[in-house]
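Please complete every field before forwarding. Incomplete forms are returned to the sender.

SECTION A: IDENTIFIERS
Entry label: holo-331
Bound molecule: pyridoxal-5'-phosphate
Molecule representation: SMILES string

SECTION B: INPUTS
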Amino acid sequence: MSKIHQSIAELVGNTPLVELSNYEKKHDIKAHIIGKLEYLNPTGSVKDRLALALIRDAEKKGLIKKGDTLIDVTSGNTGIGLAGIGHALGYEFVPYLEPGTTVERVKIFEGYGLDVKTFYDIEEAKNFEKEGLNVDNLIKGIKRIAKEKGQFFTGQTVNEANQEFHYNTTGKEIWEDTDGNVDYFVAMGGTAGTIVGVGRYLREKNPNVKIIGVQAAPSSRPESPDFTGHIVDGTIPLAGVPEEFTPALVKSNKNNGFKYDEIIDIKAEEAYKTAQETAETDGLFLGTSAAAALTAAIQISKRPEAAGKNIVVIYPDNGYKYLSTDLYKRH
Ligand SMILES: Cc1ncc(COP(=O)(O)O)c(C=O)c1O
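SECTION C: PREDICTED COMPLEX
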């Protein structure tokens, strides 16, 4: 039987696990740090899963049909996923870019032939710089545009299909590929679809699995007074912030088997160091959030109780979209 696929949409998921073997040897680490290479998805990030989940969910509910235009607010990866997977399945996509989107991402959108918009194109949010970003107004604005233009708002941050897809695919893959030997699961959150879906699946299989959320330390958050100018792209704080800023999927799944065992703060600059070192030891070339999650996994691996344990960490994307930042700049 031939192995020719008919669409890149068939290639979403089933990403491999790879142990950080050389780094572990170099640092005499007794735990197993195992990365899930989500950047091997067709458009280069974990967000292909979300794109496919959102499109399939809307199709199933009869909300979209081939030829329709999808719109969403995105910092990049979700939009790139919706562009690539969307085109493969017959949909157009218009991204409304968050401020600070790296130049590489904007160019990728242009490469897909998209009509790229920003928050300035949303009447309800265009004064965000002066007035602060009001997410409710932003969503109201984009919903209005969708209605006026006959487009479909995919709603990545609130759609339960996101975490369900991770439950059914990412979580299951990790469980099966480790033969059920997972002691810690480590991930950052944006929508939190990954950590909620995978966390629920693993905890159902083994209630002793530790679910570790990773977030940018305050000095790596633009709103913080001691902000250093370096962010962890695509992620938001998971805890310690006002209720309205915590991811919707974390709140909605509290009674659905999801909770963190621990949240670890990582500075962007620490993530940069990890990215640079693991590029040299193991040939990885991680994006910032992957490197930050890995930094947390490395911290856990050095605890005495972690000796011999399997720590699975998500690598959402690789470093190619961050070459205009300081991620790989050696000082
Ligand atoms: C680079 C990057 N890392 C991590 C995440 C977090 O993934 P999730 O939305 O599943 O929480 C995202 C998504 O926003 C991302 O773009």
